[in-house]
Amino acid sequence: MNVFFKNSFRIFFAGTVLISGMVRDILPACAGAPGLIRDTEIEETLRLWGAPIFEAAGLDPEGVHIILAQSDTVNAFVAGGPNIFLYTGLINKTDNPGELIGVIAHETGHISGGHLIRTRKAMERASYESIIGMILGAGVAIASGDASAVPAATLGGSSFAQRRFLVHSRVHESSADQAALSFLEKAKINPSGMASFMDKLKADNFVPENQQSEYVRTHPLIDSRIKALERRIAESAYKDIAYPAIWREQHARMKAKLVGFISPGKIPWIYDDKDVSIPAQYARAIAAYRSNQVGDALRRIDALLKREPENQYFLELKGQMLVDFARIDEAIPYYRKAIAIMPEATLFRIALAHALIESAHKNEKPLLREAIEHLERALREESRSTRVHRLLATAYGRVGQHNNAKIHLAEEAVLQRRLSYAKQHAQSVLESEDEGSKLWLKAKDIISFIETTKKG
Fold this sequence. Notes:
- By secondary structure, the chain is mainly α.
- The chain folds into two domains: 35-234, Zincin-like, CATH 3.30.2010; 245-455, Serine Threonine Protein Phosphatase 5, Tetratricopeptide repeat, CATH 1.25.40.
- The chain has helices at residues 40-56, 88-93, 97-112, 128-136, 158-165, 170-186, 192-201, 214-218, 223-234, 245-262, 267-270, 278-290, 294-307, 312-324, 328-341, 346-359, 365-381, 386-398, 402-415, 419-432, 438-455, and strands spanning 35-37, 65-70, 76-78, 83-87.
- Strand 3 and strand 4 form a beta hairpin.
């Protein structure tokens, strides 16, 4: 995966912990508070499933982002533009790809219907972590060296905030349902998953509100809505078409990966000892890695690579393991091979860059320049990533390009809403660069944004 906690690299600043694959907070979640997860395999699967739905909705698939938040809570919402936030608790509650696709289609219905929550302008240039923090209303100032390594908020303020920002009206919910069904029909996808997922949530209507799932609390369920959904599904031309086998396998691997990273102790209870499927072996390999069982983890990932030697996700995971087991030089070839197979995998490039920076023990310029190349390319797709800016600041600083380093520290701080700190670095660049130069213009843009935001 592309980032998760462990006692990984000790580089840059205290509190900064990065691991190449899955990304999560390094601190215990406070009362279930969500933290951001980044993972190429899961994101690519969701992108492939979502693309035909977004196209059916008249949206640019490249312009809609699906963001994962780690929380046992069952919920999903749209915020900060066409960004769909999915909680891992919701993914784990689904039994087939159709149920998850149905949720994505429903949230797309909110986007196409303009049911976006009212948010302040600051969200336009905020990291996804900061967006979660703003929405949950905790007012957390994310100030660590790596914003994705900090829980976004505590649930102490979330109840009020979710009622204020996330709860849709019954009219909006029904409208999003009907839009979702239209999108699924146009995309020729079986809509039955929407109904089966709703069936799982029906029981919440009969328990006290404080015991209901967050999804039900923010997406009100009423009998008329459910019946309208079921009637429309019964009329679908695609209701009896099976989901592709590859989708079922992707869904199984997604759930295996999540439980392996998040709850490694549960693996023996979920996967029988006789289960030799790839999802089961995947989960066991990750659980061994998360439990710091070095030999077992490496043996298990090697067994997976023997079955699928060109699987870029297995290659990346082995690179992640080697980095976290302090065998960084050995990890680099695995990252490079994964990127050769999947050049568009931005998170792989970030992971490789991080390993290169860590491997450049004596500030070897070739390794640092290679890291910068990967990170600059990654930044085109990851403009909201505090991690990329922090790594770039580190690499540029180590090759002696200090104003470039300051620009990226400023960009990181803007994403984290630490505007005074960002302005300090940008002002320093303005004072030392020639007026009109590339870096001078970047610094000017940062300061202008900060001043506009403060006025707003």
